[in-house]
């Protein structure tokens, strides 16, 4: 790749400074505009490595979904067949009719997996065959409101098994989790924030902790006027002996959570953008702090990237009584458009106990709020309150994730549960680690294995590189001469490449985030080369400035 001769860009430093005020997702739109303009005026294709949306999809569970849809339409017409009309599938004998359908359509896409999926539910989980097949068949049709509204009976059991496997490394704590199927992880966070405040578990102005760097909306939501939380940032800012980021939390940062005035901890694990899971020593320290010093600490963990780390164990498995887990299927199965997520709360939890200990005035107000949906609203579980709150309580009878979405969620879960050799998991991990290696190779950098890395994103701190390569003088030159986003504008304007600024995620200001999920493999060496080209230009400008300064009388 030949470097472009013109190193100038059209965006001024003052303009860059103004763009720093925006969310990185809004800044990304500006960079896309610049990159698109350059791509049109050159032979370069635009490379948008700013998105976390993967460019792979899980095909087998989708094939099963559409084949199940064919069976479901046949079941509907069996009940009521008029032009353009069908009826609701009947449960009686439906399992046998599906077996007949499978025998008559042996080459239908996903049919073998559907047979394995139904066998798993019946043989391993003890489901009634007709009830299970009917739930999935009726769900694909989408002809009814979700019942139960929190989550379908068989779906909840299957997703519970999936979470035990993927979030608890097949070693879940005793007891079970109550699950709430939601419209992706983003909806889950909105529902959680609202219900915690509505139920007086958090109050406007309370002190909460935020593990940073983190997903930008989690930084912005607590600042909204309706919450106005006082945020204590817990920084994953540890450096190793060579001065490189480990993206781990130093012990003293974890110890800050001992303060009982900190009511909640919001965390992404593995992190975004560093894409690293919390090490076991930090989790052990957190467990000790919760048990001995801050027993009512509410923990909300977003574990969407957990499947990309070998042996991952969520905080939901380590501190089940204190933790609300949010899991989204979007990244692992390539299904952001499906909007599939789940909230998990252990049946033995502090949230229900804290509600029983609220002042009487708060209990009465909450009894009035939920009185239309429960004869004894005081006994209503927190997770069921969340379901009601998601529909302003009055519309609780129409709450819940749509049935087709729950059907696809079930099939994704069963696909993973039946993949006993973990071939799909190994495949997705191989994709992102192959791209990470390609990026490093293009940048001329040698990677060291890190078993705690999900590898979904690469985060590069330019000032750490500058310090290690050229010392404090060069660091001071960069910081005084350029804005932290300057490299992003150069990449967009000159190489039609879009990355995101780490500073918007509360990562170091001079860090950049590169998504390893959404571009073809062959583009990552190019991105590495483009970044290196611009870094070399900074060095040359600095050296030229030193020479010029040395010639002065």
Q: Spans of 5+ residues with little confidence (pLDDT < 50)?
A: 1-5
Give the integer mean of the pLDDT values: 94
How many domains make up the coordinates?
A: 3
Radius of gyration over C-alpha positions, nearest whole angstrom:
26 Å
Number of strands: 12
Shape: globular
Strand adjacency order, main sheet: 2-8-7-6-5-3-4
* Strand content bin: 5-15%
SSE-based structural type: alpha/beta
CATH architecture of the largest domain: 3-Layer(aba) Sandwich
Question: Helicity, in percent?
Answer: 40-55%
Question: Can you describe this structure?
Answer:
The protein is an alpha/beta fold. Helices cover 47% and strands 10% of the residues. The chain has 22 helices and twelve strands. It has helices at residues 13-19, 24-40, 60-79, 94-104, 111-124, 129-141, 153-166, 184-198, 216-220, 251-255, 280-292, 315-318, 330-333, 350-356, 360-370, 382-389, 403-418, 423-443, 462-470, 472-481, 486-495, 523-550, and strands at residues 47-48, 177-182, 207-212, 230-235, 262-268, 298-302, 323-328, 341-346, 457-461, 497-498, 500-501, 511-515. The strands form three sheets. A seven-stranded mixed β-sheet has the order 2-8-7-6-5-3-4, with helices on both faces. Helix 7 (153-166) crosses helix 17 (403-418) and helix 19 (462-470) packs across helix 20. The longest helix is centred in the last third of the chain and has 28 residues, at 523-550. The radius of gyration is 26 Å and the shape is globular. It starts with 12 loop residues before the first helix and ends with a helix. Residues 1-5 have low confidence and may be disordered.
